[in-house]
Automatic annotation (TrEMBL):
InterPro entries: SurE, SurE-like_Pase/nucleotidase, SurE-like_sf
Organism: Juglans regia
The family this protein is said to belong to: Belongs to the SurE nucleotidase family.
Protein name per Swiss-Prot or TrEMBL: Survival protein SurE-like phosphatase/nucleotidase domain-containing protein
Segments for region (Disordered): 31-61
Every Survival protein SurE-like phosphatase/nucleotidase domain range: 72-264
Alphabetical keyword list: Hydrolase, Metal-binding
A GO term for molecular function: nucleotidase activity
SUPFAM superfamilies: SurE-like
Pfam family for this entry, one: SurE
Biased composition (Low complexity): 42-54
Length: 393
C-alpha cells in the first residue's frame, strides 16, 4: 500500500519511518488472521468459565428473579428514618413478591402539602435498608416521588405502584390538603402511576410504634390486590386510594369505601417568647436542609446588605402578647414568635359513609381521591365494585 502525504511539514525521515510501521502492522495482521483460521478451537474449561462469571449461579438466579418482580416505590412524609416506613418496607421485602425501592425525605416533611423545591439543589444519598434499594432526599415528599419517577435516580422507567406510608396521623377530610403523605401519592397519580397513601389514626398517649407495624400488615392484602389487578389492567384508574387505618389496626371492622369529608384538625396558634423558648426564633431554619440554607444565603446576600444598612439604627422590640401590639416608631423592628399546634376536633352527626366517621367507628377507610372531583360519585362506585371483587379472590 502506498501512503501519500501532501502539504505536510514533517521531516522526510519521519514520514518514511511512519510508512514502514504501517506496512509492518498490516503484514502482522494478515498473518495473525491466517493462524486463527488453522488453529483448533478449544472448549472453555470449567475454571475459565467460572472466572469470567461475575457471580454464582444462585446469584444470577436471584438477580433474574428480582427483574421479574413488580417494582414498588415506597415514600412517606415523616422521613426515611420513621418507624412506619421501616415496618412497611420490611413487610414488603419479607413478602418476597416485590422489588422494593425507597425514596423518602431526609427529614420530617409532615404538613408540607404538595410543595416542591425549585431553584435549589437537592441531594439524594443512598441508605442501607435490608432487601431494598433506598435513597434519602433533601426535599419534600412530592420532590421524592417526582425525582424517583423521572428516571434520573433509578434505572427502571416506572414502578407498578407507589405507596406512601405508613404515616402517623389522619389525613381524612380537608387534612389531606396539608398532608405531605397524600401529596407523595398524588404526585405519582399526576405522573400516571397508580398509588396508595396509608396513614394510621394515631392517638396521643394511646398509640405506640407496634401499631404502625400492625397497620402495615393490615394493608398487605390491599397492596397485593392492587398490584395484581394493575398488572392485569383491571385496577380502576384516574385516582389514588387514601387508606386510613384505625387506632387499633388488628381490631378493625373491615375495609369500607368512603367519601371525603370536610373534617379538619383544629389549628391553634400560640404566641411564645424567644427567651423562654430559645428555639422559637430558629424553628423554621432548623427544619430546612443545609442546601436550602446555603442557597438562601447566596440569593439574599445583596438584599441582606441593604437591610443591614436600613436596620442598623433600629431597635428590636420583642412582643409576647396576643392582639394589637401598639404603635412603634420607624426606628423599631417588631418581632413576634408563634407556634402552631394541631388538636382533635369532633364532628357530630356525621354521615357513616364519610372517611372520618368510618375511621372513628373502627373501619379501614378507603377514600378515592381524584384530580377531577366532578367524577367523585362514579369513582366511588368503581372502587366499591373493585374492592368487593379484589378481596374476594
Amino acid at each position: 500500500m502506498a501512503t501519500s502525504v501532501k502539504n505536510n511539514f514533517m521531516p522526510p525521515s519521519l514520514i518514511s519511518n511512519l510508512q514502514q510501521v504501517l506496512i509492518t502492522r498490516k503484514n502482522n495482521s494478515v498473518e495473525g488472521h491466517s493462524n486463527k483460521i488453522h488453529e483448533p478451537t478449544e472448549a472453555p474449561s470449567a475454571s475459565s468459565s467460572s472466572a469470567t462469571s461475575p457471580c454464582s449461579g444462585a446469584e444470577v438466579s436471584k438477580t433474574e428473579n428480582d427483574c421479574l418482580k413488580p417494582v414498588v416505590l415506597v415514600t412517606n412524609e415523616e422521613g426515611i428514618q420513621s418507624p412506619g416506613l421501616t415496618f412497611l418496607v420490611e413487610a414488603l421485602v419479607c413478602d418476597g413478591r416485590f422489588d422494593v425501592h425507597v425514596c423518602a425525605p431526609q427529614s420530617n416533611g409532615s404538613m408540607s402539602g404538595h410543595s416542591v423545591t425549585i431553584r435549589e439543589t437537592l441531594t439524594a444519598c443512598s441508605v442501607e435498608i435490608s432487601g431494598a434499594t433506598a435513597y434519602e432526599v433533601s426535599g419534600t415528599p412530592a420532590d421524592c416521588v417526582s425525582l424517583a419517577l423521572s428516571g434520573a435516580l433509578f434505572s427502571w422507567s416506572k414502578p407498578v405502584l407507589v405507596v406512601s406510608g405508613v404515616n402517623r396521623g389522619s389525613s381524612c377530610g380537608n387534612n389531606m390538603f396539608y398532608s405531605g403523605a397524600v401529596a407523595g401519592a398524588r404526585e405519582a397519580l399526576i405522573c400516571g402511576v397508580p398509588s396508595l397513601c396509608i396513614s394510621l389514626n394515631w392517638k396521643k398517649d394511646m398509640s405506640c410504634e407496634s401499631d404502625l407495624k400492625d397497620a402495615a400488615i393490615v394493608c398487605l392484602p390491599l397492596i397485593h390486590a392492587a398490584i395484581r389487578d394493575i398488572v392485569r389492567g383491571t385496577f380502576p384508574k384516574s385516582f389514588l386510594l387514601n387508606i386510613q387505618i384505625p387506632s387499633c389496626p388488628l381490631m378493625n371492622k373491615g375495609f369500607k369505601v368512603t367519601k371525603q369529608s370536610l373534617w379538619r384538625s383544629s389549628l391553634s396558634w400560640h404566641a411564645v417568647s424567644a427567651n423562654r423558648h430559645p428555639s422559637a426564633g430558629h424553628f423554621m431554619s432548623n427544619q430546612q436542609s443545609l442546601g436550602i440554607k446555603l442557597a438562601q444565603l447566596s440569593r439574599d446576600a445583596s438584599a441582606a446588605g441593604a437591610a443591614r444598612r436600613l436596620n442598623i439604627h433600629r431597635k428590636n422590640v420583642e412582643i409576647e402578647s396576643v392582639g394589637v401590639a401598639g404603635k412603634f416608631s420607624s426606628q423599631e423592628t417588631v418581632k413576634k414568635y408563634f407556634r402552631l399546634e394541631l388538636g382533635e376536633k369532633d364532628q357530630e352527626n356525621a354521615d357513616e359513609d364519610l372517611d372520618y366517621k368510618a375511621l372513628e367507628d373502627g373501619f379501614v377507610a378507603i377514600t378515592p381521591l381524584s384530580s377531577n372531583p366532578a367524577n367523585c360519585i362514579e369513582i366511588q362506585s368503581s372502587v366499591s365494585n373493585w374492592l368487593a371483587v379484589a378481596l374476594a379472590k
